[in-house]
Amino acid sequence: MKENIFLYYTNDLHSHFENWSKIVGHWKKQRLHHQKRNEPMFLIDIGDHVDRFHPIAEAMQGKANVELLNNASYDVATIGNNEGITLTHEDLYTLYDQADFDVVCANLANKDGMDPSWLKPYSFKTTESGTTLGLIGLTAPFKAFYELLGWDVTSPFELLDQIVTEVKEQADIVVLLSHLGINDDQEIARRYDDIDLIIGGHTHHLFKDGEKINNTLLTAAGKHGVYVGEVVLSWDTERKQLNQKQAYAYEINYTDEDQVTEEQLAEYQAKADAILKQPVAHLYTPLHVNWFQESYIMKELVHTLKDWTNADCAMLNAGVLLDGFSQGDVTRGDIHRICPHPMNPCKVALQGDELLEVVRQAHAKRFMELKLKGFGFRGEIIGRMIFSGLDVETQTDSEGEEHVKKVTLQGEAIDLNKTYQVATADTFTFGKLLPEISHSPSKQYYMPELLRDLLTHTITRITQ
Fold it and tell me: Which fold has domain 2-271?
């Protein structure tokens, strides 16, 4: 006898609630369809459902996201780096206290004391016919960040040998909920034949029809809820084997919105607005912002960053401030709207020659005009780099390109062989934006502070 088991999933929603009511409407329709046919259906989230760029997530520290998952009748979720390292230890520890679904993440543990009651390495779900699915959760191991927040996170490859064996002994079908990214997912598929299915996220990759590696089917549905995922597992109940497995990711543009969810989101937005109305300062004159020029508020923010981290110098791109401040009260909501990024301050060690190269790269037109997506940045473009502690003299050529002529620190030329402590945003420690920073062997992150916390400090300082 054949049993078809249906898994539906979301990944990397990042609090893009504009698509959520359509997603819930689609799930309700599918649930009704499968109930009529007496077919098992499970709803899964692969992490980064929370993103504090959105006022609802910011005001309620992700608790509303969990309520939305509850209301949509999710069965299992794992956590992403946005849940894991953009919330304080206490906010993550209590995030899923009211969850009606299982939360699985095998490579996360509380550093000191007991783990939260909701945290499990894996979960089992059994159909009415007796077929058992074992669902393992794993999240991206940003070790330096988690340690500063009071969590231990381990490499998934240190755990999988033991965990896959444990789950395989108790389950008919083994499913990995992976917020690790496409490269790790593919490597895991090559190493572990006992994992039947990997539902992935983190790197926002999209497999419209799945990808097969050895015995494992991989699937992922992009980002922001534009796509959702579906997996169909055909299980032979007599032979106890999977006959077929298929995966799809598809757009939900034409799905009707669920009105109950729309009303819930409106209520959450009103609640968030009320929370974020709290004033933090009063301005008697407006503060203007220009992404390609140095502004007073941007310069003061970089001064704050330098002092906060006790660095020799500091640099921040003007694109981190999305808008200026109007005259009058400045509220928490204004700060969040103008600096929504889940980005942390950091300090890196750079040799003098490396520091000069970073300054030169930052003045390149292509760098300033880069439309950056990801790495915590939630703005439009990088914009001009603004410095504190460094004086940079430039000249512009006939083609409009700006070139660095001279760089001094406290009136002295940069010593090419000296090591300097340079403060900036953690964004530049990832990827290849500024290689000298990302390759620095010494990086110190400041957590749980976000850049907007430093912006709040700056606004209050300059208005006192």
Answer: Purple Acid Phosphatase; chain A, domain 2 (3.60.21)
